[in-house]
Amino acid sequence: KKMGNATTKDHNLGKQSSSGGPAQLWKIYDAVRKNTNENVSLFVFDKKSIEKLPKPVQKSIVDCLKKEATHLARLKHPNVLRLMNPPIETNNELVIETERIFASLANVQKNYNNLSPIPDDLLNYKMEELEIRAGLHSITTALTFLHSNAKLIHLNISPSTVFITKEVIRSLSSAKGTWKLGGFHFSAFAQYSGEISEKFQFNEFDVISPFPLIPNLDYLAPEAVFLGRFGFLADLFSMGILAYNIYHPNPILNTKNNVLAYKFQLENLGSRIQLHEIPHALQGAIAGLLCADPAARWDSRKFLESEYFSDILLRSIFYLSSMMEKENSQKAHFLQGLVAAIPQFEFRTLRQKVLPPILMELRNPVQVVYVLPNIFAIATILTRYAAIFNLKRPST
């Protein structure tokens, strides 16, 4: 695709890596900012793709997409997608520059809308269990921040609005990083009551629109659909759907944005939930998050405190991510206990989340005696995959 001046003037543009946003409208490209040599991603929307639509509809779609940048500029949190520079708009395209993205969660789940060709590393990507738990923890933590600090209701939680960062770690190849929340196209600030009053216009027939102007019905809470008045807990219903659909091959709702189909499927939600595919530790949370009555629904803090996130390996990953800030005595105690847990980690988690922070501790002479047994244990496992450092390794 020939890109406009908005994308090429300040950047060296790479290949399209992914797609995301409502109906995957954003094409996401790898890029390097010329003046800083920084790795970034460019979210690009081609306005020519909607030029046959009525002018008011065109404006509504562009305004919806611009709202993403407006919110990202205000929201500063480690688990919210990071906006690098103000958006650029020309007659032909809208461009948003963010931190480097590997893919949207939708892409990882084999939704390749608006993405061609499909990159090999994405085509062969399979999520690991610990990666999913850490990712859901990140998105729920972001929601806690939105609700408690920003007083913002997201209203668009779905695989298309969750993005997985791409981090380059020294001495290691490119690594897939943290799940970040984006997609603030329909978000709104709560009133003093903690609620929003807004009535969306849903269709009573199947709609497969490439240019949606309403949130995805397959992930929307019932009070947002039927009552036109909803609060922060609407986002937690969406989280329940998101978590369920990651594990289950059949999505819990499949409405084709038809509100009559939504009503029927919601009334039969109990029979549609099949927990045998869901990890046992998550089953109680799914039931708590998918309560049709928001008064009985779990909030984000209750979900974060649930059994699903109490896994010892997950807690180890959290500790490793902040290990530089810990006292030497705490690090030593942790590293002594970590050796026994090393064989329980999956391959990519070991290579991308466990090994890099441990290698960093080699700079600390006091910790070397505790670090080396862990490195040897990891090396033994990675060697089984013929995968230590930059040697040939299985596809990730």
Outline the structure in words.
The chain is an alpha+beta fold. The chain is built from 15 helices and twelve strands. Strand 8 (162-168) and strand 9 (174-181) form a beta hairpin. The longest helix is centred in the middle third of the chain and has 22 residues, at 129-150.
Structure described in brief:
By secondary structure, the protein is α+β, with helices and mostly antiparallel strands. The protein has 15 helices and twelve strands. The strands form four sheets. The chain has a five-stranded antiparallel sheet with strand order 1-2-3-5-4. Strands 6-8-9 form a three-stranded antiparallel sheet.
- Compute the gyration radius: what is it? 22 Å
Determine the N-to-C terminus distance. Answer: 27 Å
Average pLDDT value? Answer: 88
Secondary-structure element order, N to C? HEEEHEEEHHHEEEEEHEHHHHHHHHH
The strand line-up of the biggest sheet is 1-2-3-5-4
Q: What best-fitting shape do the alpha-carbon axes yield?
A: globular
